[in-house]
């Protein structure tokens, strides 16, 4: 019988191979020198202004993309805050720099606006690992459970759910449902689900999927890194394995980790999440040192560890082409969008009632 360690390693190998196979079909980006990059930045700024467009970027995109969003009146945030900002701004056109489910969420919340992405090929391992074709029957088999899905899912999966949550509000929502005596079917991230289950004591049935970035953080490497920096605090996203979370001083969503980095008096932090977050951390806490947590291996995602390969597909070249030609538009079926909006609205209403800031990785 396969032990838990062997099963986890096998899952990681399968997830990694899935990424390799997928990325092998995607054209590699060309290298640009400083003048070429600055030229594209200037052209993108002009097009954003001419087209009454706004750029919304995720914390995990390239620092150059995040800076461009801030310089042009856009936002750098988690997926839901990106969508909410897009909904509330007066732009006619939204350019979403992130992965596909983020573009879908923006489209669902802003059906009257045109939503573009630098590439529609940028997806997410959690989204891929939870296809509606297998998820819907799984829900039907456990119809006695309330279906709660993480924001890192397709519009179709959201439409099948009772609740959609981000990592910063998930604990509160599950505690609320537990108090009502409800049993939970959770998807897709098993590490985040297990963390919530342990914290709340709720009866949770977990879908078996993981983020390829966070899955690679290992307790042994973290222990060795802590020996090198004994005074450092460890910040970890709850998509990381439980052995990593048990060593963390702070476990939280992207926005919660950024806040901790700013609020804690410590000067050195080991961070177990995508290293794209360093742009905002260093911007808000320039006097502090941030060190990426060790991962399983340098070729684990085909490009680089602790860096989502799909987020890396949001290049300046792709963004310029998308804005110029208004291609790569995100389309969500109207009926599907209406269904997906119900669990999203349930979360937004719950957040407002509880006065919880809904910010997270997803």
How would you portray this structure in words?
InterPro entries: NadA, NadA_sf. There is one protein chain. This protein is globular. The protein is an alpha/beta fold and 362 residues long. The strands form 3 sheets. A 4-stranded parallel beta sheet has the order 2-1-3-4, with helices on both faces. The protein has a 4-stranded parallel beta sheet with strand order 6-5-7-8. It has a 4-stranded parallel beta sheet with strand order 10-9-11-12, sandwiched between helices. The chain is built from 16 helices and 12 strands. It folds into 3 domains: 34-123 and 310-331, NadA-like (Rossmann fold, 3-Layer(aba) Sandwich); 126-211 and 335-354, NadA-like (Rossmann fold); 214-292, Rossmann fold, CATH 3.40.50.10800. α2 (34-50) runs parallel beside α15 (316-325). 48% of the residues are buried.
Q: Which features would summarize this protein structure in a list?
A:
four-stranded parallel sheet, 12 strands, 16 helices, single chain, Rossmann fold, alpha/beta, about 350 residues, 3 domains
SSE arrangement:
Elements: H1 4-23, H2 34-50, E1 53-58, H3 63-71, E2 75-77, H4 79-88, E3 93-97, H5 100-109, E4 114-116, H6 125-128, H7 132-141, E5 146-150, H8 155-160, E6 163-165, H9 170-179, E7 184-187, H10 190-200, E8 204-206, H11 219-228, E9 233-236, H12 242-245, E10 250-251, H13 254-263, E11 268-272, H14 278-284, E12 289-292, H15 316-325, H16 334-354
Parallel strand pairs: 1-2, 1-3, 3-4, 5-6, 5-7, 7-8, 9-10, 9-11, 11-12
């Amino acid at each position: 019988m396969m032990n838990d360690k062997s099963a986890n390693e096998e899952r990681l190998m399968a997830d990694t191979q899935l990424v390799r196979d997928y990325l092998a079909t995607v054209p590699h980006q060309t290298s640009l020198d400083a003048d070429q990059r600055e030229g594209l930045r200037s052209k993108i700024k002009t097009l954003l202004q001419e087209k009454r467009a706004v750029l919304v970027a995720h914390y995990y995109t390239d620092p150059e993309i995040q800076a461009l969003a801030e310089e042009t009146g856009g936002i750098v945030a988690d997926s839901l805050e990106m969508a909410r900002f897009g909904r509330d701004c007066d732009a006619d056109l939204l350019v979403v720099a992130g992965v596909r489910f983020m573009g879908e969420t923006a489209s669902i919340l802003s059906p009257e606006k045109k939503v573009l992405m630098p590439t529609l090929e940028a997806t997410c391992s959690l989204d891929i690992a939870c296809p509606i074709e297998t998820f819907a029957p799984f829900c039907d088999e456990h119809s006695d459970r309330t279906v709660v899905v993480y924001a890192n899912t397709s519009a179709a999966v959201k439409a099948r759910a009772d609740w959609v949550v981000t990592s910063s509000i998930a604990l509160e929502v599950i505690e609320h449902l537990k108090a009502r005596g409800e049993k939970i079917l959770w998807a897709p991230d098993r590490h985040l689900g297990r963390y919530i289950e342990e914290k709340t004591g709720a009866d949770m049935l977990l879908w078996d999927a993981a983020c390829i970035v966070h899955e690679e953080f290992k307790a042994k490497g973290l222990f060795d890194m802590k020996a090198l920096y004994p005074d450092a605090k460890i910040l970890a996203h709850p998509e990381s394995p439980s052995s990593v979370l048990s060593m963390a001083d702070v476990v939280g969503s992207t926005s919660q980790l950024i806040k901790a980095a700013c609020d804690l008096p410590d000067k050195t932090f080991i961070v177990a999440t995508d290293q794209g977050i360093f742009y905002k951390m260093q911007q808000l806490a320039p006097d502090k040192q941030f060190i990426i947590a060790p991962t399983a291996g340098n070729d684990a995602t085909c490009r680089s560890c602790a860096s989502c390969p799909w987020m890396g597909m949001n290049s300046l070249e792709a963004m310029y082409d998308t804005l110029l030609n208004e291609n790569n538009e995100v389309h969500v079926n109207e009926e599907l969008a209406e269904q997906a909006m119900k669990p999203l609205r349930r979360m937004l209403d719950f957040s407002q009632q509880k006065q919880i800031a809904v910010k997270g990785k997803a």
